[in-house]
Design brief:
By secondary structure, the chain is mainly beta. Helix content is 12%, strand content 32%. The strands form six sheets. A four-stranded antiparallel β-sheet has the order 3-2-1-24, with no helix packed on it. Strands 4-5-6-7 form a four-stranded antiparallel β-sheet, with no helix packed on it. The longest helix has 11 residues. It is globular and about 70 Å long. The chain starts with 59 loop residues before the first helix and ends with a strand. Keywords: Kelch repeat, Repeat. This is F-box domain-containing protein.
C-alpha cells in the first residue's frame, strides 16, 4: 500500500481505564471511573508503532514518570474535580486544552473524557458538510458550531487523498462521533473502490477501517442499531446496478453479507424510519424502484405505499417522524403521516430563495431538536417543527439574505450567477 495514501493513524481507542500495568506511575495518571464509557469502535485495524520502553537500570525514566504522576491536572484540586471542570469547557476550545501540557493532551485523546461529557449531557453536536468545488472538482469539508455567536463554517484539513477527487462515495455517522467515507470511484484508476476511512471527532484524526466486501459506487448507506449498512449501487462492470448488500459491525470490526435486495438499483434518496431502511432509485430497466430493508428479518421487500410516492427530496427523521423538503430551496417542509399514508404540508417559511442550483436544498439533518436545511451555497436554516406553523420558527444559522425575488432570480440565472460554486455531497452531525 502506498504510504502517501494512508490516513494518519492514532490510538484514539485507548481508554484511560486501561493503563499500562508495567509502569508504576501509570496508575496515578488519572482516576479510574466506575463506569467508563467506551465506544464499540476500534480506532484502526493497523498496528500502531510500539512505544519505546524505559531503559533498564537507568532510573532516570522512573524518576521522570514519578514526577509526572505527582503533578495534578489543576494545582490545588484533586484530579476528579479537575476533570469535572475540564469537561465543561466548550468544544471549540478543546484544541487549546491539548496545548497546555502532556497530561491534558492525554486526557483529551482518550475516550473517557468525551464519554463523560456525553453521560453528563455536555456533548456538543456540530454539523459537518462534505462538498465538491464546481471549478476543480476537489472534495473538501467544513464544520459548523451552531451554538457559537455569529456561527460560520470552518474549513477543515484535507480529506484523505483517495477521496480528494473521488465520486459516488457513501457517507454515514456511526457511534455519534465517527464520520465514515465508503467506496466511490477511484479518481486515479477510474474503477469502484472497497476502501473505508473514518474521522473521529474525539481525536480529530482520520483512520482506516476494514474494506467493504464488494467494490461499489453510487450506493446507499445508512446506520441502524449501531451497524452500518450499504446496498445497491454500481460495481463498475457496466451491469447497471447490483443487488448485493452488506453490514459493518463495529464491535467485531468486520463486514458481513446480508440479504440481497429485491431488485438491483442505484439509489438516489434514502431514509431510516421506524427501524427500517427505505431506498428509492433507478432499477436495471431505468424504471423507478422503491425498496425497504428490515434488519430483524434480514429481508428486502418492494414498497408501493404513499410514502415513496413523490418522495425525491432530502429527508430526515426527528422524534420518530419523517420529514422531507417540499420545494427546491427547502423552505417548505412536509411530514409523512403514517395513519393516512400520505405526505402533508408541515411548515413554510414564506421566504423562498428561488430555484437556482446554488440555493437548492442539498440535505436535511436533525440537530438539537430542530431540522436544519443545508443548501449548496452553504447557507443553513433551522426550524422547530414541533412548535407548529409560522415563519417565526425559522432561523438562519448561516447564509445570505432572503431578499431575492422572482425577477432577480431569473436575471441571476441568465447571467450565470445562479450556478453553485459548491455542491454539497453529504451532511452529518457528530458529537464530542
Amino acid at each position: 500500500m502506498d504510504r502517501r495514501n494512508r490516513a494518519p493513524l492514532v490510538d484514539s481507542s485507548a481508554c484511560l481505564c486501561r493503563l499500562d500495568k508495567s509502569s508504576a506511575a501509570a496508575a496515578r495518571r488519572f482516576p479510574l471511573p466506575k463506569g467508563c464509557v467506551e465506544p464499540s469502535l476500534r480506532a484502526s485495524i493497523h498496528p500502531l508503532k510500539p512505544k519505546a520502553s524505559p531503559r533498564q537500570g537507568g532510573g532516570g525514566g522512573d524518576r521522570s514518570s514519578r514526577a509526572a504522576g505527582q503533578c495534578p491536572l489543576l494545582p490545588g484540586l484533586p484530579d476528579d474535580l479537575a476533570i469535572a471542570c475540564l469537561t465543561r469547557v466548550p468544544r471549540a476550545d478543546h484544541w487549546k486544552l491539548r496545548l497546555v501540557c502532556r497530561r491534558w493532551q492525554s486526557l483529551l485523546a482518550g475516550n473517557y473524557f468525551y464519554g463523560l461529557r456525553r453521560r453528563l449531557g455536555l456533548a456538543e453536536p456540530w454539523l459537518y458538510a462534505v462538498r465538491r468545488d464546481s471549478r476543480d472538482g476537489r472534495v473538501s469539508w467544513d464544520a459548523l458550531d451552531p451554538s457559537a455567536a455569529g456561527a460560520s463554517w470552518r474549513a477543515l484539513p484535507p480529506v484523505p487523498r483517495e477521496y480528494a477527487g473521488a465520486d459516488g462515495f457513501g457517507c454515514a455517522a456511526l457511534g455519534g462521533c465517527h464520520l465514515y467515507l465508503l467506496g466511490g470511484r477511484d479518481p486515479r484508476r477510474g474503477g469502484a473502490m472497497r476502501r473505508v476511512v473514518f474521522y473521529s471527532a474525539r481525536s480529530n484524526r482520520w483512520h482506516r477501517a476494514p474494506d467493504m466486501l464488494r467494490r461499489r459506487h453510487c450506493f446507499g448507506a445508512a446506520v441502524i442499531g449501531n451497524r452500518l449498512y450499504v446496498a445497491g449501487g454500481e460495481s463498475g462492470g457496466g451491469s447497471g446496478g447490483i443487488k448485493s448488500a452488506e453490514a459493518f459491525d463495529p464491535a467485531k470490526n468486520r463486514w458481513s453479507i446480508v440479504a440481497d435486495m429485491a431488485a438491483a438499483m442505484v439509489p438516489f434518496v434514502g431514509a431510516v424510519h421506524g427501524g427500517r431502511w427505505y431506498l428509492k432509485g433507478i432499477g436495471a430497466g431505468q424504471q423507478v424502484v422503491s425498496q425497504v430493508y428490515s434488519p430483524e428479518a434480514d429481508a428486502w421487500s418492494v414498497v408501493l405505499d404513499g410514502m415513496v410516492t413523490g418522495w425525491r427530496s432530502p429527508s430526515a427523521c426527528l422524534d420518530g417522524r419523517l420529514y422531507a423538503a417540499d420545494c427546491k430551496d427547502g423552505c417548505r417542509i412536509k411530514a409523512y403521516d403514517e395513519a393516512a399514508g400520505e405526505w402533508n404540508a408541515c411548515v413554510d417559511s414564506k421566504q423562498h430563495r428561488g430555484s437556482s442550483q446554488a440555493v437548492e436544498a442539498a440535505a436535511i439533518v436533525a440537530l438539537d431538536g430542530r431540522l436544519c436545511v443545508v443548501r449548496n451555497d452553504m447557507s443553513v436554516s433551522a426550524v422547530n417543527v414541533a412548535a407548529g406553523t409560522g415563519k417565526e420558527q425559522w432561523e438562519t444559522l448561516v447564509g445570505k439574505s432572503h431578499a431575492k425575488n422572482f425577477v432577480t432570480d431569473i436575471l441571476s440565472n441568465i447571467a450565470g450567477r445562479g450556478r453553485a460554486k459548491n455542491t454539497i455531497l453529504h451532511c452529518q452531525v457528530l458529537e464530542a
